[in-house]
Amino acid sequence: MTATVIDGKKIAHALRERLKQEVAELAAHHVQPGLAVILVGEDPASHSYVRGKEKACESLGIYSKVYRLPASVSEAELLHTIHELNESSLIHGILVQLPLPSHISESSILLAISPDKDVDGFHLMNVGKLQTGLPTFLPCTPHGVIQLLQYENIPIEGKHAVIVGRSNIVGKPLAALLLQHNATVTICHSKTVHLKNFTKQADILIAAVGKLRMITADMVKSGAAVIDVGINRVNGRLVGDVDFEEVRHVASAITPVPGGVGPMTIAMLLYNTVEAAKRLES
Ligand SMILES: NC(=O)C1=CN([C@@H]2O[C@H](COP(=O)(O)OP(=O)(O)OC[C@H]3O[C@@H](n4cnc5c(N)ncnc54)[C@H](OP(=O)(O)O)[C@@H]3O)[C@@H](O)[C@H]2O)C=CC1
Ligand SMILES: Nc1nc(=O)c2c([nH]1)NC[C@@H]1CN(c3ccc(C(=O)N[C@@H](CCC(=O)O)C(=O)O)cc3)C=[N+]21
Ligand SMILES: [Mg+2]
Fold this sequence. Notes:
- It is built from 10 helices and 11 strands.
- By secondary structure, the chain is of the alpha/beta class.
- It folds into 2 domains: 30-114, Rossmann fold (3-Layer(aba) Sandwich); 139-262, Rossmann fold (3-Layer(aba) Sandwich).
- Bound molecules: NADPH dihydro-nicotinamide-adenine-dinucleotide phosphate, 5,10-Methenyltetrahydrofolate and magnesium ion.
- 5,10-Methenyltetrahydrofolate binds next to helix 2, strand 4 and helix 10.
- NADPH dihydro-nicotinamide-adenine-dinucleotide phosphate binds at residues 141, 164-167, 169-171, 188-192, 195, 208-211, 229-231, 261-262, 265.
- This is Bifunctional protein FolD.
- It holds the Pfam family THF_DHG_CYH_C.
- NADP(+) binds at residues 165-167, 231.
């Protein structure tokens, strides 16, 4: 078997074209969606992601403003910036790039963002809504994964989805979304004993760990759909968590890195920003 390679870049582009029309319709009503991104510290990968987000906003006609703050910024200063953005009429979405330096409490920062502007879906109120099945901003990467599966007509209902990774930004919210779509969900993590026993059972296997080639062909059931969220840098090149060249001969569908989940994450951020503007301006 040779897997279909899922073209996340193409699917993200199609979503962005739809959003572009929505932004134009909002402009006719004198509304321009606005996104604020707060980036603390000098991590080159974070700076590169944030540039991607800025460029994406620009191409759609979304206003964006990036706050680049030094790693030494105090929690109080960061909270002050967030409070100003909560009040700003130009800004509908606020994203604080994670991780934050260790002297800043991530949960205090995320709690300070107005839930109505929380386009990452990380505020506790929105996390609770997601778990409860109430409408809310869906976290971008998990939502992007669901969109990829749906676009490729990969069934979710009744299927066994196995997620490797249990972070608050990917693994856990993705489990909640897959459950909402009636998958049977298993979550694995670093203390899982004999990981392969679990991954081998997956109809849909999602890797969200951050470890190069940790999913090998022997861990994948023949015909599974394999979604690679991982981003690893090797000599300046990006590679995922899945051994792509091996696993593509076992899976029925597979996402590449780059060009898989990453572009979808950005598309869903734009989607949430447009949604926020529609809700706040209506
Ligand atoms: N494409 C995209 O849009 C995005 C990509 N990413 C990428 O996805 C990856 C995961 O990100 P994130 O969730 O933030 O990462 P975290 O580091 O927060 O979480 C990693 C998870 O992997 C688990 N883990 C670590 N080692 C193993 C192992 N040997 N076996 C099984 N599980 C293991 C950890 O377990 P434990 O909980 O026990 O420590 C943890 O739950 C990273 O490469 C990141 O760069 C992230 C966000 C968006
Ligand atoms: N508050 C917060 N929200 C996030 O959504 C968030 C975050 N913090 N911290 C870091 C992770 C990581 N992340 C990515 C987004 C896009 C790509 C992406 O566009 N990747 C491209 C390649 C981009 C490149 O070439 O650098 C691809 O996979 O094709 C990757 C990773 C969002 N994250
Ligand atoms: Mg990708």
